Amino acid sequence: DDDFQLIQRTFMEKHYQEFDDSEENKLIYTSIFNEYISLIEKYIEEKLLDRIPGFNMTAFTMSLQQHKDEMAGDIFDMLLTFTDFLAFKEMFLDYRA
């Protein structure tokens, strides 16, 4: 959805310069990751609650983590960015490239 892409792109534009391709993870990555989770989770949860009465974001994210090796595709890769720090960091490194 266009709104989601705008939110994500704006967030990445704001923070991408903090990321580099070193093995060491900077302390600032944690606060950026937590901010991203709050922003993206809130957006997705609101959209899904509109469509699925009783939707539970916590159960959804736990299910994503449990089945991440079984999933493929851009949507699943994006969903993993708010449950998996390494996927999140990789997204920023790809954006920066």
From TrEMBL:
GO terms for cellular component: centrosome; cilium; mitochondrial intermembrane space; nucleus. Pfam families: ARL2_Bind_BART. It comes from the Eukaryota. It is found in: Cytoplasm, Cytoskeleton, Cilium basal body; Cytoplasm, Cytoskeleton, Microtubule organizing center, Centrosome; Cytoplasm; Nucleus. Residues 1-97 form the BART domain. Plays a role as an effector of the ADP-ribosylation factor-like protein 2, ARL2. Belongs to the ARL2BP family. This is ADP-ribosylation factor-like protein 2-binding protein. It comes from Anas platyrhynchos.
